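so the lab meeting is tmrw and i was supposed to have these ready like two days ago... anyway. pasting both below. for each one the top line is the aa sequence and the line under it is the structure tokens. i havent really looked at them closely yet so no promises
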Amino acid sequence: MPAGWAALMPVYAWQGLSAAGRRVKGSLEAEGPRAARARLKRDGIFPTVVREDRSTSTAAGAGAATGGLFGRREARLRPPELAGVSRQLATLLAAGVPAVEALDALAEQAERPAVRRVLQAVREDVVGGSALADALARQRGSFPALYSSMVRAGEAAGALDAVLARLASWTETQSQLAVKTRNALAYPVLMLIASLTIVSFLLAFVVPKVTRIFADQQQALPLPTRLLLGLSNFLLDNLGMLLFLLAAALTGAVVALRRPPVRLALDRAFLRAPVVGPLFTRIAVARFARTLSTLLAGGLPLLDALPIAGDVSGNGAMAQAVRAAATAVREGHALAPTLRELGLFPPMLVHMVRVGERAGDLEAMLERVSAAYDGEVEGALATLTAVLEPVLILAMGAVVLFIVLAILLPIFEINALVR
């Protein structure tokens, strides 16, 4: 189902009886009245009234159409906010505080108004008789897909506080990995952009003024000077066209990346790239292994956990492979040989999964794999940064040296003729 379709599903107001015989009411999103009744029955509620709330549905549709500015799911919790909410909610529930009071306390102390609105919406659904997992699932834009799934498993197992604490640790680890990746690549990227900007400025504005004096000379200019003048003249004569082509290329890239086949092909190319491929593979595998370990430890069945963990890996090719593995497991195959046959997963992951399956402790083995790959990713990022910095400096120095030589060589020749 497309991401925007879920936001346009109708909202149904319902009344019913809980398993304890209490009268409860609330609202939920569903594809139709039959789906709404089936969902309520799965939650242990016997529905007596189910009717479409057209005002809420219209508002939700308008919010989706306008970018979600006024919708209930407009705020996506940042990783630190999500980790903080999870850990504080786990602490309050472990201390015996009811879920409604705990959500009240979290909403009051939320710094961002958008986060406060999300928590208040979750609280209202819980007060209306919804389970916490269902209330979180309705805030699709605010919480990751695995969040409500794990909370539902925690509610079923009676270990909601432990599951929330594990979710907080998972969020913090994922956030730290993302921050380390961005920090490691920020300096080389900024240096590359600055270098290209400086060289373009020199070629377009500085070099023509300095070398204009050589154009009046009757003698032949040195090859570096002729190349520099030709490149500078090309930039000046075609600057508008080059800027247009650059804008068109960027627009085309953005449009192409929105197409799933293009993103899938690009993700597959990233995993198989000669130099950076192993790094992208380690990052995706670390996310997949840690997420799958967290889901299994939270009580989610393997078949339900695999697709979620594959999506969280951040790579479309790996997510597709994990879904294929889930299909094979559903047909009775073991997970380890299935992952090996897919060819995208490193041998260490396959080996640890095999050991975990035999020992009946798959989540612990996956946790060890994720920790090992986190360390490898950190080391690989440090190595990549250490290599890129001098390479970029040398490349920039070579370009500047070429420009300086192209300017100085004619001057030397003129001085020699004068003497």
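ok protien two:
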Amino acid sequence: METQTASIKKIALNYGVLLALLSIVLQVISYVLDAHIDRPWWLTVLQLLISVGVITYGIKAYKTENAGFLTIGQALKAGLAISLVAGIIAVVFNYIFMNYIDPDFVQKTLDFSREQMIEKNPNMPQEQIDTAMSMSAKFMSPLIMSAFAMIATLFFGFIISLFAGLIMKKNPPQQL
């Protein structure tokens, strides 16, 4: 008698969309509070807690649908699939955000970075500041920002999934 494994696709879609929606709500709240440029520490912690919670619950749902069994590999697949769906939706939202909601976002971020650099290094020559700002501007292109966002989302999704998998691991019994 074979046991049917749960659908990672269904779990990834449900929990990936949930994670993306919660992340978007958090981003909108930070925008409304005008905290989206300097991003205070509590926003980062809250985003991390949301990610840990949603990915962990997604993996737990997968385990439940899989007759209570979960291997580390399955946990990684489920968690990374959730992260991938959430990351794709977040990249699309960020494109809309940066082009339509706050089209000055990149410039405001660069201006904030310049202010922080001058504040922390008041004796830095103008040439060095200009060079650093030029490099920062190159990394603020939508394509590069999207790539870094996807890499970060998948990296943290992998770490969260690994820990969740190690905690919830229950291998199916070996069949002869």
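from a quick look at the 2nd one: The chain is about 80% helix and 0% strand. Residues 37 and 109 are 6 Å apart (CA to CA). will dig more after coffe
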